[in-house]
Design a protein that fits this description.
Helix content is 55%, strand content 14%. By secondary structure, it is of the alpha+beta class. The chain has a domain of 151 residues: Butyryl-CoA Dehydrogenase, subunit A, domain 3.
Length: 352
C-alpha cells in the first residue's frame, strides 16, 4: 500500500482544515454545546456548500465516489477542531449502511436528504432491541445526536432497520453527557415500525468499518492538535527566566506524544487503505486503528492539561473540550479492550 497522499487528497485535506480551522472556533463549539450539540451553520457549509458529506458514497448514489482514506482526512480535520457535527452517526454510520445495504428505494429516499444535511440520522446499536415482524421494541442509552435525528438506523443484533424519528412509538430523551459536542440520547422503541434494510450484513459491516475509521481519524486529529497547542504554549510560557519548553523533562513528554501520534497516524491510514482496497487484513486494521488512536488521544489530552499547568486545569480552557471528546471516543463503538480482544481472536483463534 502507498500511504503518500495524492494531489486530490492533499487538496481535500487543505479544504477541510480551512473549513474547520476558520469556522469551528471555540466560541461556536461552545454555543453548539449549549444548544443541541450541532453547529447548524457549519453543518450547512459542510454538506451543502462544499459537499464534503458525499465523501465515501458512490457517485451513482449521489456521492463523490471517494473512499475511506478521504473520509479519514476530513474526520482528522474535524477532530482537530472538536467540531460539533453529526458526521459520525449521520454519515459515517447511517449513510454508509444505507449505501451498502439499503434497497434502491431506501437509497433514493434517504441518501440525498442525508448528504444535503436536510435530514440527520442517528445510529441506534443495542443488542437489547428486538424485532417482531416489522415492529421494534427496546431501548438504547447511547445514540449520538439521537435527540436531533429525524431518522434512526436501528440494529437488533441480526437486522438493520430504518425508523422515522416522528413515529409516535419512538421516545427520545437527550442525556447530559461528558462530551457535549456529541450528546447522547436515550431512544425507546415501543413497537415502532421499521423498514428492514435489504442486506443488513453488508450494511452493518460497511457502517462499522467507516465508524471505526472515522473515530480513529478524529482521535488522530485531536491528539495532533493537543500536541501542537502544547508546543505553542511551551514556547510562550516563561519560568525561571526561560521558556518551559527548554526543560528536558517537558521536552521528553512532548517527544513521547509525538511518537505515539505518528504510530496512530500509520494505524489510521493503514485501516482506511485496507478497507478501500478490500485487503484481507482490513478487519484487523480497523480494530487496531480504533483502539490505538483513541487511547493515544486520551493520553495526549491528559498530557495537554498537565503540561499547561494551572491554566490547563481551569474549566474554561479548551483543553477540557479535547479531554472530554477523547474520553468519549475511547468507549464509542467498543472499548479499547474489546477491540484488542477481537484482534487477539483473529490472530490466535481459540487460544486467545
Amino acid at each position: 500500500m502507498d500511504f503518500a497522499f495524492t494531489d486530490e487528497q492533499r487538496m481535500i485535506a487543505e479544504t477541510a482544515r480551512g473549513l474547520f480551522g476558520g469556522q469551528a472556533t471555540s466560541d461556536r463549539v461552545r454555543r453548539a454545546m449549549a444548544a443541541d450539540g450541532i453547529d447548524r451553520d457549519l453543518w450547512k457549509t459542510y454538506c451543502g456548500e462544499l459537499g464534503l458529506s458525499g465523501i465515501g458514497i458512490a457517485e451513482e448514489l449521489g456521492g463523490l465516489g471517494l473512499g475511506l482514506v478521504e473520509l479519514a482526512i476530513v474526520a482528522e480535520a474535524a477532530g482537530a477542531a472538536v467540531a460539533a457535527l453529526p458526521m459520525l452517526g449521520s454519515l459515517a454510520l447511517s449513510a454508509q449502511a444505507i449505501a451498502h445495504g439499503g434497497s434502491a428505494t431506501q437509497q433514493a429516499e434517504w441518501l440525498p436528504r442525508l448528504l444535503s444535511g436536510d435530514v440527520i440520522a442517528a445510529f441506534v446499536d443495542d443488542g437489547a432491541i428486538r424485532a417482531v415482524g416489522d415492529r421494534l421494541t427496546g431501548a438504547c442509552d447511547f445514540a449520538a445526536h439521537g435527540a436531533s435525528a429525524e431518522l434512526l438506523l436501528v440494529t437488533d443484533g441480526e437486522g438493520a432497520w430504518l425508523v422515522v424519528g416522528d413515529d409516535p412509538r419512538v421516545r427520545v430523551r437527550r442525556l447530559t453527557t461528558m462530551d457535549q459536542t456529541r450528546p447522547y440520547a436515550r431512544v425507546e422503541l415501543d413497537g415502532a415500525r421499521g423498514a428492514r434494510l435489504a442486506d443488513p450484513v453488508a450494511a452493518l459491516q460497511a457502517a462499522r468499518n467507516a465508524g471505526y475509521v472515522v473515530i480513529a481519524a478524529e482521535a488522530l486529529g485531536g491528539a495532533q492538535e493537543c500536541l501542537d497547542r502544547t508546543v505553542a504554549y511551551a514556547k510562550e510560557r516563561v519560568q525561571f527566566g526561560r521558556p518551559i519548553g527548554s526543560f528536558q523533562a517537558y521536552k521528553h513528554r512532548l517527544a513521547d506524544m509525538m511518537i505515539a501520534i505518528e504510530q496512530a497516524r500509520s494505524a489510521v491510514y493503514w485501516a482506511a487503505c485496507a478497507v478501500d482496497e478490500r485487503a484481507s487484513d482490513a478487519s484487523l486494521a480497523v480494530h487496531a486503528a480504533k483502539s490505538f488512536a483513541a487511547d493515544t488521544y486520551f493520553r495526549c489530552a491528559g498530557d495537554m492539561i498537565q503540561l499547561h499547568g494551572g491554566i490547563g486545569f481551569t474549566w474554561e480552557h479548551d483543553a477540557h473540550l479535547f479531554f472530554k471528546r477523547a474520553r468519549a471516543l475511547q468507549t464509542m463503538l467498543g472499548s479499547g479492550a474489546w477491540h484488542r480482544e477481537a484482534i487477539a481472536a483473529m490472530l490466535f483463534g481459540d487460544a486467545a
